[in-house]
Amino acid sequence: MAIRERGGPTQARGYNPAALRAARFSRIPSAAPLAAPGALCVAVLGAICVVLIAAPAAWGDALTPEYSPSRNANDIHTLYVTSLAIGAVIFLLVEGVLITSLIRYRRRRGGAEPAQIRGNTPLEVGWTVGAVAILVVLAGITFAYLSDVTTPQRSSASGLNAGTEVAALHQPAVPGGHSLQIHVNGQQYIWRFDYPGAQQVFSYHDMYVPVGTTVTLKITSSDVAHSWWIPKLGGKADAIPGHTNDTWFRVDKPGRLNGQCAELCGENHADMRATVIALPPDQFRLWMARQAADIRQSQALLSLARRIRGQGP
Amino acid sequence: MATPEYAPPAPPGALRSPAGTRANGGPPEIAVHGLRDRPRGWTAWLTTTDHKKIGLLYIYTTFLFFIMGGVEALLMRLQLAHANNTLLEPHTYNALLTLHGSTMIFLFVVPVLLGFGNYLVPLMIGARDMAFPRLNALSYWLFLFGGIAFYASIFFTPPSAGWTSYAPLSDNAFLPDGGIDAWIFMIHLTGLSSLLGAINFTATIHNMRAKGMSWGRMPLFVWTILITSYLLILALPVVAAAVTMLLTDRHFGTAFFDNTGGGDPLLWQHLFWFFGHPEVYIMALPAFGMISEVLPVFARKPIFGYKAIAASTAGIAFVSMLVWAHHMFPTPVPEVVLAFFMLSSFAVAVPTGVKIFNWLATLWRGSIVFKTPLFFAAGFLATFVIGGISGVILAIFPVDWYFNDTYFVVAHLHYVLFGGSVFGIFAGVYYWFPKMSGRMLSEGLGKTSFWLMFIGFHGTFLVQHSLGLEGMPRRIYWYPPHGNWQTLNLISTIGSFILATGVLVTVVNVLLSLRSGRKAGNDPWQANTLEWFAQSPPPENNFDIVPRIRSVEPMKDIRRDVARRTGRSAETVSQPVTTGAT
Q1: What sections of B48-109 are H helices per DSSP?
Q2: Regions of chain B short of the pLDDT cut 50
Q3: Contact status of B34 with chain A (Cβ, < 8 Å)
Q4: N- or C-end of chain A: fewer Cβ atoms within 10 A?
Q5: pLDDT value at position B567?
Q6: Does residue B216 sit in the same domain as residue B344?
């Protein structure tokens, strides 16, 4: 065995006593012998406390999504709370077992070698089936709520009575009642809303809607991908060029609801905001008429200006 | 051991040994540490094909990228610390979020795990090197130059379309500068690097395992690397095709993703996420493997349900190919498609849950030794379960319509990728550093680092769930004072600096211990797997002899064997092993 060794150890054979000595666990200084597991538990418990106690106490909204006034938003809220409750049980179970093991089964001086358990088939099958069962239940709950979220609800009796603004458009998705369909177009970095009717009313940034009336949105984009989102009105819908996306909402109380684009759309993505302004139906009609008049007036002014500059027809 | 079980064939001309080695005309009985003259100094690192050197190159390089990505994150957190803040320009902020995401995913988590794989897989399976050492070196250099090409863009125009680079924003109509091209080039180079690496791992693990190491005796970390390699081979060609299409859209007049030319922006999202979701598991599975190695060693108890953990790894990988559209729930997709992707995303939770339960059962009734690797592993479990639960909540597509693209998703993905992968990686760093350097890391600094990281992490990301619930979208460079946004953002920013301090403590720990750490010996943890049979750090040929593998814990067998033969307890066995014949 007279082979040249390069980079090999001087300890050529046998068991390395230095390594042996260094190897024992007891030799490695235990910086924080028993404080460590305790501290770990305190931290984990602290995290749980932050979730369960401090957050709801300090900020009421911190644990649940914004919701109401629209039914789809309420159902999303219910689904979230349900799944959070199921998740919280699993969370407490896992953290509980983890913390218990770390405390109860920490190494003790002179303790016996732990039993060398390699598995337990019934137990393993049990928790696999258990996990599947929980998810099946969750899927069942989701499907139970699904049609309420996706199918627009009826307009209420106090809603906008189907006038000329609405009659021009077909609304097969809304069961029975009347509704208002608004076309939404995302553009860097503003939202444009086109209202139904012969007057061709449109607006930017502020979407005016009548209360008690189901509003269905046809959403698209004319440049990059955007995402339409007013948190209090439930889910978002991406605005993709070349595609039309649908969503709906119904606001039952007058007021302003704020939101903003949720898909990175360029430099000023953060400035691409939107507001839904809910008005009583009669005021909504007034607004439509005034907006139509304003648009007609500014178009007239524009064509006048063009004629003056010799650019017009 | 009367005869060595394994004697690698000597490469012709490479073995510098006196005549007489092949005394009986047969193969040499024992291979020695140094086989040939090697370049010394820094050139050794440039020309090396040694899997351990390449592994270390990966690990050091990726940690540099990790620090860069971390600084980018801190800058973003500073900007968001206060409402109406004007610290950063919007284009700078968008560049930072793109650099941060792309760096952490393509230049840190994936390659650092492949770096650990590079270092450990041959040692764990009792091989001398990877199957294709030169290809292995090529993988590293492709990765490095991919990273350099990407970061070169900060001197010109950095990319600013997010790590997902959604078309049409990433098209030249909207971002004509070279940043997106640098991003594409980086995806190509790192993708090729990972693909070659994956082929290399597959060939190595299939063909070069020690005698007796059947599939059922392979270390769980090797299982995860093998399955990750399959995922890479399936997923990477898709993103390579997608970014090539983006490149031709940008510069050669095609319109794959341009609806005005007959293309479809949604095609990009489908192709990207077809790769992107398996990528999530590519980042998670090897970290799971590390946890599966660390927990039994520090619980002094075998891993609970070895087969279930290996099978769940394969199960996660299979289902992860079928869940990509859960990133696209708010896009115009038929409801039945949404339902399918919700159910498939639920399905991933089952094998993931099985893993968590098995890890808990490994700790249960153990004799838990509180060393730093265990802290990070326990921190991983405590944290990852939150990411898993929020993942299931996000899979419910009506709920996702609310949460998609909000800070809830940012919190979720960091619970999975930082709380999961990065805590796993840090457990791995503290666990394998003694093997890689021959020295122990400081336990005191290690535990300090863990606590800072653990507290900082939850401080940063727990409150981001609430930000999402209160309607704050992600990727916005400023926000008005609205509700609790300002308070929550400030907490998050403070947390992020505590987290960064924790990472810094580990960096200091590594630098100090490399210089003056206590000598580790071969097997400081009394571990189970074969890499602890080699010297620390292992010599170029890894093993003088490789024992026949008789169980999933070969080191336990060896220790028991030695105790039986010598009549005294052997807590470690050092190489080279006497063959008895001499």
Answers
A1: 51-80, 90-102
A2: 1-31, 576-582
A3: yes
A4: C
A5: 74
A6: yes
Instruction: Indicate if B16 and B101 belong to the same structural domain.
Output: no
Enumerate the residues of chain A whose CB falls inside 8 A of the CB of residue B354.
124, 127-128, 131
Average pLDDT for residues A251-258, to the nearest whole number?
Answer: 91
B369–A107 C-beta distance less than 8 A: yes
Domain shared by B419 and B284, yes or no: yes
Subunit contact B34:A241, Cβ cutoff 8 A:
no
Indicate whether B512 and B536 sit together in one domain.
no
Whether residue A14 and residue B578 make contact (CB cut-off 8 A), yes or no, is: yes
Contact B32 A63 (CB under 8 A): no
A16 pLDDT above the threshold of 60: no
Residues 249-308 of chain B with CB under 8 A from chain A are: 259-260, 264-266, 299-308
- The SS3 call for residue A197 is coil
My answer on whether omega of the bond before B576 falls inside 30° of 0, hence cis, is yes
What pLDDT was estimated at residue B1?
38
A263-307 residue pLDDT tens: 999 999 999 999 999 999 999 999 999 999 999 999 999 999 988
Residue A274: what are its φ and ψ, rounded to 5°? -150, 150
Query: Is the pLDDT confidence value at A47 over 90?
Result: no
Domain count, chain B: 2
Measured between CA atoms, how close is A249 to chain B, in angstroms? 14
Interface contacts A/B by beta carbons within 8 Å? 376
> B487: nearest CA in chain A?
A59
Identify whether the C-beta of residue B2 lies closer than 8 Å to the C-beta of residue B548.
no
DSSP letter assigned to residue A8: -
Residue B363: C-alpha distances to residues A35, A131, B185, B366, B553 (Å):
18, 20, 45, 5, 17
**Superfamily of structural domain A164-308:** Cupredoxins -  blue copper proteins (2.60.40.420)
Q: Please give the residue that has the higher pLDDT: either B487 or A60.
A: B487
Q: Which residues, including other chains, have CB under 8 Å from residue A275's CB and lie 6 or more apart?
A: A205, A206, A207, A256, A257, A258, A259
Among B485, B500, B518, give the residue marking a domain's end. B518
Average pLDDT over residues A36-63: 58
ipTM for the predicted complex comes to 0.89
Kindly identify which residue of chain A lies nearest to residue B40, measuring between CA atoms.
A7
Residue A109: per-residue pLDDT: 82
Q: List the domain boundaries for chain A.
A: 36-106+124-150, 164-308
Chain A nearest C-alpha distance from B559 (Å):
11
Q: For position B221, which CATH number holds?
A: 1.20.210.10
B240 and B283 part of one domain: yes
Which strands, in side-by-side order, build the sheet including A206-210? A206-210, A273-279, A255-260
| Whether residue B323 is found in the same domain as residue B188 | yes
Chain B residue numbers touching A8 (CB-CB < 8 A):
32-34, 539, 576
Quote the CA–CA distance of A19 and B293 in Å, as a whole number.
22
Name the token pair of A21. 């000595």
Please say which residue of B468, B502, B518 terminates a domain.
Answer: B518
Domain carrying residue B339? 42-518
Contact A124 B523 (CB under 8 A): no
> Is pTM, for the whole model, over 0.95?
no
To which residue do tokens 């535990």 refer?
B447
Q: Are B500 and B547 found together in one domain?
A: no
Nearest CB to A243; choose among B30, B266, B353:
B266
B365: nearest CB among A79, A115, A245: A115
